[in-house]
Amino acid sequence: MKTSIRLAVIYGSTRKGRICERVVKWLTQEIARFPQFDIDIIDPLEFALPPSRETAHPEIDRLAARLGMADAFIIVTPEYNHSFTAALKSTIDLFFEPWQGKPVAFVCYGGISGGLRAVEQLRLVFAELHAVTIRDSVSFSAPWSRFDTAGRLHDPSDALHALDRMMARLEWWTRALIAARNDRPYADIAA
């Protein structure tokens, strides 16, 4: 029997009235179809993070513990001005070790590009953090007209197909990287 994968789903927006709420609701409802994943939803708004990186802060420690327990991540990100949000960058930049040697997948949304420009920039950030990004993602253009307030998606067939493919590849990479980290912890690799 395979062990469960601890999957952290991270909100990429902290704006009031954020569409991210709807997208995360849809995503978590759909991830329930994949019982091999145990989901931990991480919303930066649930943490009283300091405005600057402090070495000793209880909220940073609390978030670090949650990220550190994850075997894999899904970032749910909007695209603002052809990029991802400052709040997401701040959350990512608080840490280095929790991302190392772990896979990161993306569910994105935005205007005509569906958030893909934000994802392309996030791939560069996570490469620097020694994380492995999953090539396949789920993208929603004009999400304000595709989701209702309960997170139900109108005409979900394409999104479900993309999600199934992304989750299969996320599971493969997660299991491969868990085995690699168990064989040799990533922190033991010489710089």
TrEMBL record:
InterPro entries for this protein: Flavoprotein-like_sf, FMN_Rdtase-like_dom, NAD(P)H-dep_reductase
Residues forming the NADPH-dependent FMN reductase-like domain are 6-141
Q: Where in the sequence is the signal peptide annotated?
A: none
GO CC, sorted alphabetically, is:
cytosol
Enumerate the GO terms in the molecular function aspect: FMN binding; oxidoreductase activity
Give one Pfam family, short name only.
FMN_red
Spell out the protein name for this chain: NADPH-dependent oxidoreductase
